[in-house]
Amino acid sequence: MIHSVLSPSAPHNGKGFFRLTLAAALLCFAATSAAAPPTPASARKQVHTRVQQAASDAIRQEAQRNRWEDYQAKLNLFIPSEISQYTPCGAPLTVSMPSGERLDLRRLRFDVRCDSANGWEVAVTVKPDIYLSVLMAKNTLERGHVLGPSDITLKKFNISNLRSGYITHPDDVVGLTLKRRVRELQPLSMNQLDSPVMVERGQRVLMIADQDGVEARTMGIATKKGRKGEMIKVKNESSEREVTAIVSDMGVVRTNLSAKN
């Protein structure tokens, strides 16, 4: 935009004022003529904008499902070079993910389609970097260690590079046992962890049976070790009958009154 500024000392006689007015009008006309109409966004720009929006929405939904409290995402888009051969789309682009494809945060694929005249279609890959606070081991921990609150810490990490998964809530791991050695500041995942052994082989256990609202208790001997929720064989001390029971707590199993070997 051009701004004309008149000097207080400028002459205001007829010819001088006419020349000044004419010059200003010509400048305004020239500026208006020189202003080119807005250039429509290129096909590449259209695709970039729509895929970036679709990827952000997909990651936001994933964050809600997994209860991410705070995250940062950087999107790296890979658009095929053939897009430079296409004309800008005159209609809103249609963006979709392949049906049935599980969301893989390491690599997202979007099919982009232009439905206007001379329409076209391209497949775009998005590789996001998602930084999220995940649980890590404060120090190196050995196999068999039972995790406590003092063993873990939350730190930001690029979860897109974690093939084995991640954990964001301390309550999900406290009390679990490490299956293998974990290094200092190594992100924790559920496949590294196991429930602690609650019943040892040969251990005397409390057997609780519940049927039709009637609860019966007796003692038995476990024939194998078990973790919470696992099914094991237990020999009833009174009847000497071996039954199948579910480990429910330390030294406690539950079974049905009618359960038989």
UniProtKB/TrEMBL annotation:
Locations listed in the record: Periplasm
Signal peptide annotation: 1-35
CC terms in the record's Gene Ontology section: periplasmic space
Record GO biological process: bacterial-type flagellum assembly
Nucleotide-binding as UniProt keyword: no
The keyword Signal appears for this protein: yes
Region (Disordered) residue spans: 37-56
Protein task: Involved in the assembly process of the P-ring formation. It may associate with FlgF on the rod constituting a structure essential for the P-ring assembly or may act as a modulator protein for the P-ring assembly.
Stated name of the protein: Flagella basal body P-ring formation protein FlgA
Gene this chain is encoded by: flgA
